[in-house]
Structures are given as structure tokens and as C-alpha cells.
Amino acid sequence: MLLAAVLATIAGFGLWSHFRQADTSHTVIGISDSTKFTRAQLDDAGAVLLKDKRSYKGCTIDRISYDEQWSDDRLGDEWRSVEDNPGSGSSFHSAIAQYGMDKVLIFRSDFTCNDASDKGFSTGTTAGWEDLLAWAPADAKADRGWVWIDGGF
């Protein structure tokens, strides 16, 4: 009887942890100074990403960060790569073409997953995940003025 109760408790915890939202209680948010966006806009972008990352069931969101110099360099590299290779394309290049370089940014995030099969992440720590967003408050898909474009490495 005791063994059955222990097994039921373990199974219940496993199901609970699989369906619960990601832990964001200790997430560190780091945002650099910006010449492109106001602090309020950047805070809103961080809040939009944090809200989205709560869907990373079985994970802990460790850090969300924005470094304008790094973001601009990465966007510039992506733009040049597609321009130098006609016929190629990327969501980054498309976002810059649609919204303009001055309206697009990349946040990076680090998270640790124990069980995140619903998002396809492997168990362990993922560092440097990139989320591409565009400032487009008139867009119907915008949340707090931001449109999420793409995410990955």
C-alpha cells in the first residue's frame, strides 16, 4: 500500500511538472542602453518574451538579455550574408526589409529544461537562444507594440 502511494505521488509530480508553466521566478533581465528604442519599449519587449517563454513547460528561464551593439552587429551580418548570396534568404533579412533595421532587434535567452518535449528542447541548459522582434505597434499581431518574428540559433 505504501509503495502504491509513493508511486502515485511520483507519477502525479511527473505529470504536474510536464504541464506547469516555465519557472520565471528568478529570471534575470539585462537590457543595454539604446539609441534605437526607449527604455519603456525595451522593457515591454522583455515582458513579451518572458510571457512567451512561460510556455516552455518543464524549463527554468535563467536570463533574457538585449545588447544593442551585439544585436546590430548580428543583424548586419545576417543582412550582408543574404545580400552577398542572391537567392538565399532568412527571416532576419526579411524582417529588416519589411520593418527597417532601426525597428528590429534580437534578444538572447538562456534556459534550463528538465522536461520540455512539447517545445522540442533537449534536457539541460540552452544558452544564447535568439528571439527576433520588430517594433510595429500598428501591426495586428503586436503585443505591447512588438511583433515576434522568429527564434532559434
Automatic annotation (TrEMBL):
This is Uncharacterized protein. It comes from Bifidobacterium vespertilionis.
